[in-house]
Specification:
About 35% of the residues lie in helices and about 40% in strands. It is of the alpha+beta class and about 120 residues long. It has one domain. The longest helix has 15 residues.
């Protein structure tokens, strides 16, 4: 398994961690938030979520990113460059939707399991 951290920081009154990993050819983006601002947003002190791409969609995402940004970087390097930082999750979601790249989304607080 390959893994990297996309963001690990404090914003407002919350701590945010966003990691990416590839396991069995499948890209997973995993987030964990905690703190006072999270309690205000979700009514719970912690919030976890994940995006999962099938191996086929992982390969397609890598292909699109390499084409769009004229890069030979591996997928995790590209994901860190393009979707790292406090707003990386939003950028990733927007990119995938605009390029019709489906993903599965899970949210622990809101009990959401969806495919986009």
């Amino acid at each position: 398994m390959q893994a990297i951290t996309l963001f690990n920081g404090h914003v407002g009154k919350a701590d945010y961690t966003l990691d990416a990993r590839i396991e069995d050819g499948s890209l997973q983006i995993i987030g964990h938030d905690q703190g006072a601002d999270i309690i205000k947003l979700y009514g719970s002190p912690e919030h976890e979520f994940s995006y999962t791409f099938t191996p086929e969609r992982t390969r397609f995402l890598h292909y699109r990113l390499r084409q769009d940004y004229l890069s030979d970087d591996d997928l995790l390097t590209l994901v860190r460059k393009l979707f790292g930082g406090p707003d990386g999750e939003k950028k990733l979601r927007q990119y995938c939707r605009s390029h019709n790249i489906p993903f599965e989304f899970h949210d622990s607080v809101e009990s959401i399991d969806q495919i986009f």
